[in-house]
Amino acid sequence: MTGLTAELVVDGRVPQDPALAPNGRLLCYVLAPGSRAGDHLDTELWLTDLDGEVRWRRATADTATESRPRWSADSGTLYFLSDRAERGVPQVHRLTLAGGAVTAVTDWPTGIVDHLPLGDPELVALLAEDEPTEQDVRRARDRDDAIVVGAREPRSRLRLLDLGTGQLTTPPVFVDRHVVELRQRPDGGPLAVLTQASADLDYGPRTGRVYLFDPATGAAEDLGPVEADAQSLAWWPDEDGWHLGYLALTPPLLAAGTAVFDLAVGGGARRNRTAGLPMCPTELVQTEAAPLVVFADGLNTTLARLDRDGPTPLSQHPGHLDSLTATPAGTTVAALTGARYRPTNVYVGSPAGPLRQVTDTRPELDGVAFGTQRPLAYRAADGLDLDGLLVLPVGRSAADGPFPLVTIVHGGPYGRYADSLQLFWHPSAQWLADAGYAVFLPNPRGGQGRGHEFAARVAGRVGGEEWTDILAGIDRLVAEGIADPDRLGIAGGSHGGFMAAWAVGQTERFRAALVSAGVTDWGMLAATGENGQFEAALGGSTGWSGTGPHPHDAVSPISFAGRIRTPVLILHGAEDTNVPLGQAVYLHRALRHFGVEHEFVVYPREGHSIEERNHQLDFLRRTRAWFDRWLQG
């Protein structure tokens, strides 16, 4: 058995976006590196025929970013995006399986955002931004490029490509709307077109409307507004006609988790089809009959069929089940999943299970010894049932405790820990377990997996019960002799970073903390983050809500910076638009003002997620060194 190195963690390749052909035999997926070494992320498309022995082959030999594989209705052609001609500008390419030739079928100046082969074999629907005008080019050349916010804002528009003539047309519909998703009715009928008033992530998701569009006649019909952050369109037939479903945030709160909504296209009110369920929908997948629904279900995942009386569970899968794809009949599915000690791979089978693994993208991990991982069920201070994961140091058992314990809080807060392999470039349980730490991964209220009411419990009062939920788990591990109460650390990224910053302002129990891309001031985040209204719903108010003090002040870690005595490591991407760098600068200046031991690291060119290889390596090594200094020294 071998130990982990930072290089072993970040240099792996991960499967993405599996696509089953309609015939159920052919399967394609994207293989991507876990980190980026240059200016572009070079990905690959891999193909196989599932009949007989699975033998994978590369679809192309290009050095390019290849993505979004989509099959033609007859399974004879694979369409995908590739920037092989001009890096950073993806175009639609076509691979004809009969001859093996790959050709570009678009040359749009701004690149293609998404594509959908239609029932008519000569048509492909595209999403693409407008090409620059002569005035745009002249202004860019002369640097007369002042940005007027809201004016000439980039929007993706619906366009149609005629493969026979090569002509690309833009129907004169939705001209003032940003198109985000398309789905054609299974019988080859109209397209459902999901739009927003803007591409602005703060404003756009709250302005969704869905339309019908007939590609044969160009006629469009407005079906009305949809709930916030709508996505994952799916059609299905019923006795009263066609229905259109989608996932969206559960009203009236913007921070309370997703639901499946059902719209009868011929008329009728929208219905929440997952209300009251103790699990949370994450994907909706179209078939020719009832759609399939993926549910986050505690630490595991349930695959269900959306029948008239509600979701019918078909199978349960350990950990995560992501990127589901199905044949039109819905009899065969492919998805990304793994296990406690096995990384994510592509699996195929019946929706009723079991699924068989058909890829092995990280064989280099076969000889690695991992820490024992087990589910942890416990109760909050108010009696609410909770769960999480405990990972023990490599080669140790619970009887060998107590151990230094690092609690890593997940992001979101509408995220979750599932019973999957916990090994990533960011602070992860197996990376720390390899260095002798026990790691607690809590799922406090506000997250996925236990239904809408559970998710809604933190809106407007972050840092309250979710914080005591985490403490209850730590207290249990101390009482059981697993955690050393004198060697406790806490870490997290994004909302988890908020919780780490919050924790050290509430207690001196922790000897070290890591705040990665963390929220320190909810009012400032609502004003400057790309998801402002979502953050305002979590924090409870905005800075323009009168003279204050505001509700968000009472739940912002910066308000309690004068209490912090714990050494803090702050890590943040310089170009983060989700949680802007100013959040980290604010905490750094406060800790410097109060003389608190801390280290502040900014990663150039990085956003909310760290992508460059050397930065990921630094992140891993710096994290472990920080906790070693304060918990092992």
TrEMBL record:
Keyword Transferase recorded: no
Lineage top rank: taxon: Bacteria
PANTHER family named among the record's database cross-references: DIPEPTIDYL PEPTIDASE FAMILY MEMBER 6, SERINE PEPTIDASE S9 FAMILY MEMBER
Source species: Actinocatenispora comari
Keyword annotations from UniProtKB, A to Z: Hydrolase, Protease, Serine protease
Gene Ontology molecular function terms on file: serine-type endopeptidase activity
Any one GO biological process: proteolysis
InterPro entries: 6-blade_b-propeller_TolB-like, AB_hydrolase_fold, Peptidase_S9_cat, WD40
Residues annotated as domain Peptidase S9 prolyl oligopeptidase catalytic: 429-632
Protein name (Swiss-Prot/TrEMBL): Peptidase S9 prolyl oligopeptidase catalytic domain-containing protein
